[in-house]
Amino acid sequence: MRISVQEGDFDPGAEIADFGAGATVGAVVTFTGIVRDDTGTLQALELEHYPAMTEGAIAKIAAEAVARWDLADCLVIHRYGRLAVGDRIMMVATASRHRAAAFAAAEFLMDYLKSRAPFWKKEIGAQGEAWVAAKDADEDALKRW
Predict the structure, then answer these.
(1) Whose CA, among 28, 56, 68, 83, lies 20 to 30 Å from 124?
(2) The whole model's pTM is what?
(3) Residue 113 CA to chain centroid, in angstroms?
(4) HSE (CB half, 13 Å, CA atoms) of 41?
(5) How many whole angstroms separate alpha carbon 89 and alpha carbon 81?
(6) Do the Cβ atoms of 92 and 31 come closer than 8 Å?
């Protein structure tokens, strides 16, 4: 299991080059999140965090996913700082014996990162800056777990 909270970009291909290598792994699922502009006015997204708190919280939920779905491996990368539209913001990878477990664990981790990981997000646009509030849809996604 590897957790990385980092300011710099990452290469998804390089991150999974040897990920999940092993005789018992039958599935590797990856997801890479990209900063998107839903309104046509976003210039950047700025993420703040407390390093020890954020890394510890993500490690705890990743360990839960590993145990719950019997994962062979788990990777979570999440960026912070100022990110432009189109920048990679996060990546989740899971490896397991079977694809259903790998997919479920990846979705669980993505839902957690979207709504519960301790990041504070600020949208920066032509009209100014605004902190991003929690969305009901993100909260609802957590209820299935």
Answers:
(1) 56
(2) 0.93
(3) 5
(4) 9
(5) 10
(6) yes
Tell me which residue of 52, 55, 36, 33 sits closest to 44, measured CA to CA.
36
Name beta bridge partners: 124. Answer: 44, 129
What are the residue ranges spanned by the domains of the chain?
A: 2-138
Q: Is 23 helix (H, G, I), strand (E, B) or coil?
A: coil
Burial class (CB in 10 A: 0-12, 13-18, 19+), 70: exposed
Do 70 and 61 touch, CB atoms closer than 8 A? Answer: no
Rounded Cα distance between 28 and 102, Å, is 6
The CA distance from 11 to 60, in Å, is 24
Q: What tens digit of pLDDT does each residue of 91-139 get? A: 999 999 999 999 999 999 999 999 899 999 999 998 899 999 878 887 7
Angle at the Cα of 85 (from 16 to 95), degrees rounded to 5? 20
Please count the residues of the chain. 145
* Tokens encoding 114: 């979207």
